[in-house]
Amino acid sequence: RQDVHGGVGFFSVSATRRTILDVSTLPDSLVPHYQQTKTSSLLSLHWPQPPRNVLLMPKLHAPHVIVSAVEFGKHIYSNYPGLHLVFESHVANEIHEQFPFPIYTTAPGNAPAQLAKKIDLVTTMGGDGTILRAASLFSAHNTVPPILSFSMGTLGFLGEWKFEEYKRAFRECYMSGCSVSTEDLVAPHTLSALSADDSDVQPSDLPPPGEWTSVQGNGKCMGLSRTSKILLRNRLRVAIYDEDGRNINDSLLPTSTEAPEPRHPLLENGQTPSYLHAINEISIDRGPHPHLAILDIYINGHFLTEAVADGILISTPTGSTAYSLSAGGSIVHPLVKSLLITPISPRSLSFRPLVLPLRSKVVLKLSKRNRGRELPVSIDGKRRVSVKIGMEVRVEGEKLSRTADGWRGGVPCVIRASSSRGGRGGGIEGDEDDDSWVGGLNSLLKFNYPFGGDGGH
Amino acid sequence: RQDVHGGVGFFSVSATRRTILDVSTLPDSLVPHYQQTKTSSLLSLHWPQPPRNVLLMPKLHAPHVIVSAVEFGKHIYSNYPGLHLVFESHVANEIHEQFPFPIYTTAPGNAPAQLAKKIDLVTTMGGDGTILRAASLFSAHNTVPPILSFSMGTLGFLGEWKFEEYKRAFRECYMSGCSVSTEDLVAPHTLSALSADDSDVQPSDLPPPGEWTSVQGNGKCMGLSRTSKILLRNRLRVAIYDEDGRNINDSLLPTSTEAPEPRHPLLENGQTPSYLHAINEISIDRGPHPHLAILDIYINGHFLTEAVADGILISTPTGSTAYSLSAGGSIVHPLVKSLLITPISPRSLSFRPLVLPLRSKVVLKLSKRNRGRELPVSIDGKRRVSVKIGMEVRVEGEKLSRTADGWRGGVPCVIRASSSRGGRGGGIEGDEDDDSWVGGLNSLLKFNYPFGGDGGH
Amino acid sequence: RQDVHGGVGFFSVSATRRTILDVSTLPDSLVPHYQQTKTSSLLSLHWPQPPRNVLLMPKLHAPHVIVSAVEFGKHIYSNYPGLHLVFESHVANEIHEQFPFPIYTTAPGNAPAQLAKKIDLVTTMGGDGTILRAASLFSAHNTVPPILSFSMGTLGFLGEWKFEEYKRAFRECYMSGCSVSTEDLVAPHTLSALSADDSDVQPSDLPPPGEWTSVQGNGKCMGLSRTSKILLRNRLRVAIYDEDGRNINDSLLPTSTEAPEPRHPLLENGQTPSYLHAINEISIDRGPHPHLAILDIYINGHFLTEAVADGILISTPTGSTAYSLSAGGSIVHPLVKSLLITPISPRSLSFRPLVLPLRSKVVLKLSKRNRGRELPVSIDGKRRVSVKIGMEVRVEGEKLSRTADGWRGGVPCVIRASSSRGGRGGGIEGDEDDDSWVGGLNSLLKFNYPFGGDGGH
Amino acid sequence: RQDVHGGVGFFSVSATRRTILDVSTLPDSLVPHYQQTKTSSLLSLHWPQPPRNVLLMPKLHAPHVIVSAVEFGKHIYSNYPGLHLVFESHVANEIHEQFPFPIYTTAPGNAPAQLAKKIDLVTTMGGDGTILRAASLFSAHNTVPPILSFSMGTLGFLGEWKFEEYKRAFRECYMSGCSVSTEDLVAPHTLSALSADDSDVQPSDLPPPGEWTSVQGNGKCMGLSRTSKILLRNRLRVAIYDEDGRNINDSLLPTSTEAPEPRHPLLENGQTPSYLHAINEISIDRGPHPHLAILDIYINGHFLTEAVADGILISTPTGSTAYSLSAGGSIVHPLVKSLLITPISPRSLSFRPLVLPLRSKVVLKLSKRNRGRELPVSIDGKRRVSVKIGMEVRVEGEKLSRTADGWRGGVPCVIRASSSRGGRGGGIEGDEDDDSWVGGLNSLLKFNYPFGGDGGH
Ligand SMILES: NC(=O)C1=CN([C@@H]2O[C@H](COP(=O)(O)OP(=O)(O)OC[C@H]3O[C@@H](n4cnc5c(N)ncnc54)[C@H](O)[C@@H]3O)[C@@H](O)[C@H]2O)C=CC1
Ligand SMILES: NC(=O)C1=CN([C@@H]2O[C@H](COP(=O)(O)OP(=O)(O)OC[C@H]3O[C@@H](n4cnc5c(N)ncnc54)[C@H](O)[C@@H]3O)[C@@H](O)[C@H]2O)C=CC1
Ligand SMILES: NC(=O)C1=CN([C@@H]2O[C@H](COP(=O)(O)OP(=O)(O)OC[C@H]3O[C@@H](n4cnc5c(N)ncnc54)[C@H](O)[C@@H]3O)[C@@H](O)[C@H]2O)C=CC1
Ligand SMILES: NC(=O)C1=CN([C@@H]2O[C@H](COP(=O)(O)OP(=O)(O)OC[C@H]3O[C@@H](n4cnc5c(N)ncnc54)[C@H](O)[C@@H]3O)[C@@H](O)[C@H]2O)C=CC1
Hints:
The structure is a homotetramer.
Chain A: E1 20-22, E2 33-36, E3 43-46, E4 53-58, H1 63-79, E5 84-86, H2 89-95, E6 103-105, H3 111-118, E7 121-126, H4 128-137, E8 147-151, E9 161-162, H5 166-175, E10 179-180, H6 188-192, H7 212-217, E11 223-224, E12 229-233, E13 236-241, E14 276-278, E15 281-285, E16 293-299, E17 302-315, H8 323-326, E18 331-332, E19 338-346, E20 354-357, E21 361-366, E22 375-379, E23 382-387, E24 392-397, E25 401-403, E26 406-408, E27 411-415, H9 437-443
Parallel strand pairs in A: 1-6, 4-5, 4-7, 7-8, 8-9
Antiparallel strand pairs in A: 2-3, 3-12, 10-11, 12-27, 13-14, 13-24, 15-17, 15-22, 16-17, 16-21, 17-19, 19-20, 21-24, 22-23, 25-26
């Protein structure tokens, strides 16, 4: 398959085509359409043509997840011939020898910019942290590919699918929005896409394995396949300005990272991104300092308050179940268009968490009273830069916009239909509208967990 | 002026035309248009023609407010000749002798239905409770007239205007959205609309006193007057169903009321309203019972949790600063389209308040475990009915809808522009966008009030 | 045995000696000694002579508990010949036909006074509510007999023993503090006290069935038996004063009760008790009123604050896991000598719960701003009286005092040794010091219950 | 006066006796008696003989406080001839030229050990931080001298006296517990101790300026002077053990300090102190790490819970108004013998703060799940050491013990009598029992600060 992609480039090549190729050789990314439906508050995923470039992100420092990633990669290669597997470079190096076919990665020092240009679909294998890491790759971009997330071991709150379901989950997502003819569903290689034990899949809803655009093209489409449900998670747009009013977002590269990667530029040509995006929250805290942080907070240009606290969180509804929850914030459904201001251990009896309209402009300004200290800024739990007196952090909700093709913006997460989500919904009869959020509250956050000796009433 | 309104009807008439007339003789109510603007998140008020029927609601049991209401009424009568003053019947009886002109009220036993049909504009004089009472008159209706609220004495959180400003405030609201010619602004009776001490009003922004439609009609309109800013406060739609699935909203009439009125039917012909509307919240609590209430909560048909608590609140963002705040809920900006579920003293360590999308369908169901007790249901702090085992309370956010003429639904509250709101914003430079909410947090709720010996930093 | 107690009195007698006798015929109650030990923060129970009059309190309205109470009663009668079984009168009437021996109860209208005079030991069978009810019988008295509590079905937080353990638990408590000779331990009737399935009891720690004082007397005592561990739960002393400074505690009789009993006088001769005692808390709340309660709070004569709230709780550490917990209070260990002031849904952002020294004098005074309303006062969840404007509720911690014989005061609860408390401590190696409180936090209150999909990490 | 102390030693000497002498030349410290009184929950201070060595601690980095310290020092020198003024070495160096008499300080590298041996009385001039710093000097010792604290500018919660009151405050403290004859009270130099404007001091309660023991000795004592009121603030005893069970408290020296001092050994001979003491709290937190800290908590040898959080606080009641308050803890009166466990932003819905008996043994153990990170430990807000996996922090309340002479242990803080504490108690009629705590809640913490437009009710 090497020739398909036009040469090896600078990547090391092993004998049996255990090759790592450069993503730049791949076609540019597709932007799927996210369309409203009548029966659900979730959107449905429609590929304009089948996705081709899939980024596989296994959890860091977890050898057993690498094993599963290899299994998953082989499955995709065998069953979806048109697809290219992309890995982060440190993963690619670790893993490529186990694949008897070439895989793709980014050139050193260029990852986020390249990925944003090429990736059609992201699959994560790990916990919430891996999903956050995936989103952070697209942090400087307005468009994020759909994220299909598999939990490995313990369930996370953002994770949607169990890894055991990967065959069906991937197929459903790959096929989403495509009309297929019945005869294609019984093609021989289709069956091989399903292991014997995946017994709950009926032949009648099997996908065509490969390039369904041609199928669509020649008019054989006869039935609409089930579409994947998408939750567009709102992000926050964050920009940091220095005392002279200059945007210094280029200094927002991660300073704490467990990934063995260098600090890549976020945009292709080394430009300063106007905004970085957070999917959980942005926080400023006292970091290693023993003394309280002092921050002035403004909303839409009006002074709100001076916060004297361990720190301040500006959180999305998605992040309302993360740090903000720990700090005492309410739980906000991800479809509530809003942003949260939640203080961390404020030295006040009366600093109640706030929920503001999504498009509020929030500014955090380092007060002179901090006496020369610098305070670290984190995005989604990753330390980025430290702000000094006079600097400001400007935050605003990212707007979702409606186009003729559907909605744009946010992080498109592939949601597992509630009716098939075992162990969460607790046997509740799911309807289309269910976004699995209620189930997660109960099973993962132990929301309103009952008192008593037997764990029940 | 009696002849204008066509007779006295069944109302008592005193010698010197101190008459109470029936609202049914008045023209039907106007529905103003609420239009979006570029510079503000608030809407602007546009009267299709000048308002004619104004309901004046003074606070209950407050003689000094009655005195002010008389002053206000006389001012309106003298300066806005086309306007009719309407009072609740117990107020009308108490007050009419002080007016040398007829006033209007409803027939006994018919108030809410009649008022909904006739009132163009409501003015309240009192605290938050009076505003809630005003809204409750329109609780069974989809359309609520704009509410112009004056605080008398202590400021409330919902109240917007100080009574001292009543002349300017009323004029601004009355004129809102009208284009007027400059010459009209210096007409003699215009000046009489302003007392000598209202020194901050310049002749150039004076309103024409009366029927500005005619003015508009003959083409003299030359400059747009300033429009009043409107906040459409979302309400909740509440319906109660008995064990047999029958809507029993007709039993939702107030059972606790300090007003000397009988329990009026809510709809004109005695129909059961499909919904009642709450502007703050609906609550179910243990009332006089010593034992904890037990309620099953469902969201969009899914079982959420069994609440064992003093009670449960389903609140609007408007109500987030009322009971829900006391019960530990977050403060939610009224423009965040959402509803809150806040438990009251829950017997649980893990029942964190929730913020859900506005259109979520929440059902509260009385569990069998309550052993035969009835639990009182309150809407905006007024006890209504008691629910028994098997009954359900269904709650949903009221949808605001967009029409060609602007937005519909909610409770249209006339907001005081921040720049002129002394004592709240604390000298902050206001912009158009300000809805005075941040100022209210600080000055009224003492949000994040600083520690220390001198009340400051 | 009837002759022993000198006649039947006014009680109904059935043919086969299924008799109900008057407690007044019984010997006066013993006061055991509660002594400090080196190895435990709990006290140890020492009977001066074997207990003779045992009050058995089954849960109300629970037929299956009555069945167990009969079983328990028969066991005691057969194995502890010197003991008299006492029941509340409504229980006695319901149950006496099932006993082939006489039981005891109080004369109508005299229960608490009589019981306080006669009862050596109380055993409850039910949940926390039954323990509270037991304590409330001694609410007007300074001395409460030890309470041995059995949970029936679901565990409560105050309940200590599972009913299945009743034989061993009762024996241990009965024998506590007695020195017995080894030969007594193998007396034949001793063995009959234990059913065959009570397999974990070894002959060597069997008790002598009956009157161990004689045993002690004749010098055969050779080994100290294990003593029962006692937690003296501090109570609150409550007194209500009217506007003229008169103690009106006589009006504090329960107004809400599910027990089929009349309202008994609390003291023998109808005197007004100077204090009533609460074991959980005293609360004043808005009861059926829709408006907020307004209460002035004083500490040691100093004005603390004006509370505007649903209500106010003054709670013991014991009660810190009851209502106060629901209202947001901290969890306070019962050995911390303190009282808690916890507001219920206060209309304030800054009313944080307080923990004060046990002997603080707290006064709650009904503010004039309540406008004529009466507010119900509850003790341990039972509505008692309503306070009006001008009245005050005075509360103070009950002092435990040290005498030559050990400690006095509080409610002596027989605590189950941690090492044998299955299902709570979770396999932790117990030491003498453990009062089972930590175990209860985890197993019953689900304290810091871990997040995650599998109920663990 | 130089000869009195036997030479200059290694200290720099300026011409006009602007000398710094070594504290080692001073007599060893006195331990005053703290005795219970009938009318107060506070203790009264009794000097066995007049204090001689006073440590003056001005706030760091605050030039205006240095100015006041000089004024204060001169006042003491002029009016209390027997007294020696001691300063920390960096203060002594900065300040000594302004005194026309010798002052004392410690040898470099020996401060805490020397001070503990010599100081009779500490006076702080600054905020709560300065008091904490004073207490930390005695952190390795069981006995702390009484602390007389002056607030400079803004009031702190621990600070008791306004600096303007320094003459009376110092005199009252100096004289406390001494019986003096009337004639001594009119000695001439006594009057000079009071400035003309200190008009509220009557001659009859003036102190003898100098050595009142001699006065006591020759039988002239005729009236008891007013005694200073003492609050013994309980401390926590903290010890850190490494994986091998070795006490590593010697590594607990401050790592973050704003004082220009080197890290002094805490004990005289360089011994490892068995315990360090905290007056507010000990905390372990995630410090600069982005990930949550994971700590196992044990109480009295029993596993309580695994905390997953920003950190954990073990706090005294004194510290309940400091960090623990910010983290959501209850406010606990300093006389409640207890310690608090308060989580900082725990990733749990159900980790409610706990209040435990003072003598509970709490162990915090770094879980293996922290993956190799070290977590900083802070005592009273000062970073000390970092703990690694396997290490434990053992915490226990310091016991106050009763001796024939009164109470021992804790930090003896000189409390300002409530009746004379302007601006806090708000005109409340004070009694002896008042420890000014209620006043501080209201005026400093803005406890239950009322809502509303006018900052009042
Ligand atoms: N005290 C706290 O609760 C702190 C929380 N965090 C949170 O951790 C996030 C970073 O996550 P990791 O890199 O995995 O760090 P991590 O390994 O420290 O784990 C954070 C925990 O939060 C969970 N989590 C993350 N996002 C979530 C969401 N949206 N809803 C519910 N649970 C969520 C994860 O599953 C994990 O259990 C940050 O965005 C921040 O929200 C970070 C620091 C402190
Ligand atoms: N524990 C509590 O906090 C309770 C609160 N309430 C609230 O009282 C409301 C009824 O008000 P009233 O008839 O005046 O009763 P009320 O005379 O008991 O006063 C309630 C207080 O809430 C304030 N308030 C009302 N609506 C508000 C809002 N949206 N935002 C901020 N403050 C608000 C009022 O100004 C007043 O101070 C109910 O809708 C409920 O929200 C009712 C019962 C208990
Ligand atoms: N919102 C709330 O949480 C309310 C709580 N209560 C509490 O209920 C108590 C009366 O109990 P019941 O007669 O059984 O009424 P109940 O049948 O309403 O049950 C109250 C619940 O509290 C539990 N409970 C009682 N005392 C406790 C303690 N000391 N620690 C932990 N849990 C405890 C009981 O097991 C039961 O689950 C009152 O003293 C009050 O503390 C009463 C009213 C409301
Ligand atoms: N998020 C928070 O609230 C944090 C609080 N702290 C607290 O700061 C203390 C150290 O104080 P500083 O050196 O002055 O640091 P700092 O300059 O950071 O000030 C801490 C604040 O706490 C106040 N404070 C200290 N002890 C207090 C007490 N016992 N009661 C009431 N207020 C008190 C001080 O007046 C000051 O306003 C620590 O012991 C810790 O309790 C430390 C870090 C974070």
